[in-house]
């Protein structure tokens, strides 16, 4: 590794670290971060394959509300670095990535707590109308998130490759093999997170519908996306017309003297006429 | 009747101001914190508008301070909120007819519904679908995988953020009528259906569980437990496990704990030979 590669790796580590908090360009996702590290180290293929494998594992990991997902930035950068430099397998890559995702999560929680201090500073600057200083507080907080991944990456870069290699090679195959099996199963945690986020009982059948379609057909993902979209449109159209009919019949009931629920009905009607 | 301090000319945002807000909004979550979430990020994005509407002094300071309040929603769907907030600040600066409480109420009112539609639409559907598509290609070693994911997800994100900022600013507080209508509910439901459907497909096709224990041996042909399960319904174990994990998560079990438990199971299975 030459000095340019080291600088570029630290740069990618910083971008991934910022990406992890910003959740904008998705540079913290394994698919992107691992590929970039592979590109720098001259073994882009390993980077892409490891990235794809880790991406599958982390598919549903997301930050919703105040809940933090395990951190993919630190895990992707360091695991790719180690797998390529020490010529170990994807299995070892997974073995390294998982504890790193937990460590990265702990670090981002730490940084997000420290940032409270900068926010209080920001309050003071707002009172004085010093908007430049508020901007700086914001940028410094973002910088800390970059350092959160850069510093551990720097430490790993400083370690001797031979020493790391011997440690990795000393992991028994039952562990690396077992972790690889676990990696194939772990995806369900992500699926479960996504399902729980869209937890509407009336819509749950669509989950089973997707499952059955996949179990007994040979559609690919584009096909499933298209099918899903069509089911969504059909459902909305039917839901729509059904409500409209209900409104009609209830309006008749209201005319017959039963005024119960007619207010709610009007609200719904307004919604639909929007 | 309050009088405007700005004189007769109505102050509006220039195209450059809006572009600046758009660019800043790409860094909204930089100072995410556990006390007030996206608050300083919100202020950071609003600064170009605040500078335009308020001259240095008490009003500008108050404007900065009111956008340091607690704020949290889906980062990509903040765009319409920034637009409406800018429109309301403009009204306040020019006519004084809008007060602080109205602006705060609007922000809080839009935050929930937009997070409600953004999470299933982007985190539940767009990202996992595109990521699974990209990862599937990437596992064959092709650069097309990561490129496809990166280009498509960012095209969606940037289009939304750019368009909705201007939409919110042009429509102003009228947007609240849009939100109250059935449209948002329909969008949320539609996104959830696509998301759930694709998740179901992923559970079946993209989960690898294999139980290589030999169950029967007929005429030298072996049949493993997995073969039997697959002949009943492919992906059955994955489905059961997904529902179980979903239940655990609802019970408040830490996802990392579940992840480590599954890896433990993988190692145990490899060691004892019931997983392969």
Automatic annotation (TrEMBL), chain B:
Q: Which GO terms describe its cellular component?
A: plasma membrane
Q: Where are the transmembrane segments?
A: 129-156, 193-211, 231-249, 256-274
Q: Which UniProt keywords apply?
A: Cell membrane, Membrane, Phosphotransferase system, Sugar transport, Transmembrane, Transmembrane helix, Transport
Q: How does it sit in the membrane?
A: Multi-pass membrane protein
Compartments, as annotated in UniProt: Cell membrane
Might you name a Gene Ontology BP term for this protein?
Answer: phosphoenolpyruvate-dependent sugar phosphotransferase system
Record's keyword annotation contains Lyase: no
Protein name listed in UniProt: Pts system mannose-specific iid component
